[in-house]
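FORM 7B - TANDEM STRUCTURE REPORT

SECTION 1: FIRST PROTEIN
SEQUENCE AND TOKENS:
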Amino acid sequence: MGCCISCFSKKPISEKDNVNSKIKTHHHRHSPSNGKGAAAFAGDNGGGGGVPVFSEYSLADLKAATGCFSSEFIVSESGEKAPNVVYKGRLQNRRWIAVKKFSKMAWPDPKQFADEAWGVGKLRHNRVANLIGYCCDGDERLLVAEYMPNDTLAKHLFHWENQTIEWAMRLRVALCIAEALDYCSTEGRPLYHDLNAYRVLFDENGDPRLSCFGLMKNSRDGKSYSTNLAYTPPEYLRNGRVTPESVSFSFGTVLLDLLSGKHIPPSHALEMIRGKNINLLMDSHLEGNFSTEEATVVFDLASRCLQYEPRERPNTKDLVSTLAPLQNKPDVPSYQMLGIPKHEEAPATPPHPLSPMGDACSRMDLTAIHQILVMTHYKDDEGTNELSFQEWTQQMRDMLEARKRGDLAFRDKDFRTAIDCYSQFIDVGTMISPTVYARRSLCHLMCDQPDAALRDAMQAQCVYPDWSTAFYMQAVALAKLDMHKDAVDMLNEAAALEDKKRAK
């Protein structure tokens, strides 16, 4: 933030300056990032930080999160022999989740299901959509995982609407999934059931993740593959068993998908591979925008993965070591390459009932905040300024005229004009209005100026130390600056102030 708040205060720092100094320290230490994709992507191979510990959920929790398992919340449905459904849900703490619901008899023994779930739940990696819980209640068997909001690889490859996946992103997907498989293998979970383009998901930043659901079978004794048998490893057709080498075969089918942009049965693709006809295999939607040398490496790796004899296929470490040198845009965020908006994370809901202002701020809904500030007008400013008759000068009238012009511009959503007019009002300094600071803070947010928005919200707090709106506006600005922990703290502080005011 260019300078500390004391540099531009017209009044002394309030009693709550311990909160401000905490924000100031954090803000100087954390510059706004451009998401997990950029430079962070290149070295981002560690554990899944920020993921909840694995735990057991009640059926009531999951019913509430999914609207009683409403069909409107279904995000995928598959498998005739071992039917299962995946729902999108939202917990009370506002965390989005994916809930996989098994058929009643898929896992008759609750202990066996729980043991399997706990085994997968120990894994934590940011290349995996991690398993965060399970539920065994009566006949119900459910898994709870992190929710990935940006669809599957299948959607982006086969059913895209705006743009196909560019070549560099396809290479990134291949490497990320190889890294996920290698991590799982290293942690003692080498078997992945039915790896395909529907099991590859994109998180809020557009980074590829491997669904944790494939680390568990669809049932205790059920089939491990629910997709067309034309894509299954030959040894599975012989004996019905999945081995680590079977996973390499399935990874080869995903490589074919990435090369061709189509779901080609391996037998057909092998004919092209044997004929070395790479151009015939390549996705025409790439329009030639790929490196033939890189495509040849992927082409050859797919060929090795699809070998009939399992012992001739590469292991997961081979997959990673082959694909890692091909990464050619490590500093470009994934969301940018996918052509999706940058993720803006809303602060989590505080443990207090939210007012309309609190709810709007927790959702980062700037339009709703604007409507509330327009409706509230200046009622919260009462008592913050008492002017004598002698102060009622022409300068004072000019200043109030500037505020009036700012209010009109604010109402009409002309936010840049509002900033100019409110600045004229503030710069005179005769009258200090927390509402003007809050309104100008929102104007700065609307103009994508979160630093300036945070300064104004902090100044509003200095003028009116117990004003919840000042804290709410700081929460939104901090979230825009990717300082999410501080944003949650501010949201909680604001809600607590509202509770305190209601209790009086």
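SECTION 2: SECOND PROTEIN
SEQUENCE AND TOKENS:
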Amino acid sequence: FYCLTTEELSMTEFQEKLRQQHEESLHRELEALLSTADHADAQSSRKDFQGFQKLFHRFLQVKGPSVEWSKINRPPEQSVQPYEKIKAKGLPADISTCLSKLAVVKLNGGLGTSMGCKGPKSLISVRNENTFLDLTVQQIEHLNKTFNTDVPLVLMNSFNTDDDTKKILQKYKHHRVNIHTFNQSRYPRINKESLLPIAKNMAVNGENAEAWYPPGHGDIYSSFSNSGLLDKLITEGKEYIFVSNIDNLGATVDLFILHHLMSQPADKRCEFIMEVTDKTRADVKGGTLIQYDDHLRLLEIAQVPKAHVDEFKSVTKFKIFNTNNLWISLPAIRRLQDKNALDMEIIVNPKTLKGGLNVIQLETAVGAAIKSFSNAMGVNVPRSRFLPVKTSSDLLLVMSNLYSLDAGSLTMSKRREFPTTPHVKLGSSFTKVQEFLSRFDNIPDMLELDHLTVSGDVTFGKNVSLKGTVIIIANHGDRIDIPAGAMLENKIVSGNLRILDH
């Protein structure tokens, strides 16, 4: 056995005292902040702060990467099933009984700032004037009408998106879908040096606008529970939630996966399914499923020791990544919440604010809880279930004729010869949605496109058609106008091409 030296002991004691000091200082600061809130706000904020203090306590305990690289194994065959195998089971005659036990949860906490839009990202128009939220409501309404059922839609908002989203929800009053909302927590950003909150009071605007953040989607378990919605859905007989990002247009309710969950024997009930899909070069940063200490576990790039980042990104060792489409048992969430047994790795997200102040955000990921659930598994789904719109390059794809829209669902056009999505890279002149839209008279025909790169000041006339590999580069100070009706197949266009009205 091993004895600590006096020096090591005093070092450990010192660190322990320092930890206690940090926690006490944080507690004092949070109490001072709460004293500036009105009664109603103080109650919900106190719950948020308790969650934050737990996270902060764990953040101080954990040093270094949260995984030992040598312990990482590929998940065993049976723990990640191919979708085809699950689909082969077929569907029961009474699929509506399965649906009556389901609720759909969309993660709706994000803003559209990275695409140059104000307000919630879910309110950006993505297809025929329909927003992400419109398409989601249409999908679920179609499901409820087709199977004469009542699948509710639950939106997890953040303090950034709640007001704007609630205003918009009025317009769905006459749709056949019950919509519930709850708010994820509001956590304080902390100064990287002092580890104390930078907020002066509980306001979320003015000088305090940058002082708060929604703490990642791993917060869903506690905020769902705190809101009372978890218990309400369980009382209504719901057994599973299907959780996904609202900007993933491929995340529709899959009846085969739902049936698979419902058809498990009671003692072998699968409490968590993570949909994964095969990695391509574009997905090297996506989290992956691993086997670790006899559990399935989500490994995110933020947890990988620097020396192994290239290995993590390789498509050969880690072949799949997490789509963040998750099927989770409601009674299991209740049980784990009651026991305080949900253990999610902390993601430390450093930010530099406008004035140059360095802060950190402590976050968790919803999929990281997989290791706490019984009989958890992955299902390797087709790429079509992962269609996120994070950038204007993604937006171009979903607005184009590559996809057909039916009852709120986008599917790859039957007229495309091969099922892979073209690789599109649009330069910085296309980053903001408004500017992006102003550069296209209409969206080009992309049915036969493999690869598109556009850089610089480029505009597209009406009815342009792009095929194969097309690269268009306008050098600094030059402008390229692709004329109406142009057909570019395996072409590189560079230099200056101005088309002026006569």
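SECTION 3: OBSERVATIONS ON SECOND PROTEIN
The chain has a mean pLDDT of 90.
The chain is about 25% helix and 25% strand.

SECTION 4: SIGNATURE
Preparer initials: ____
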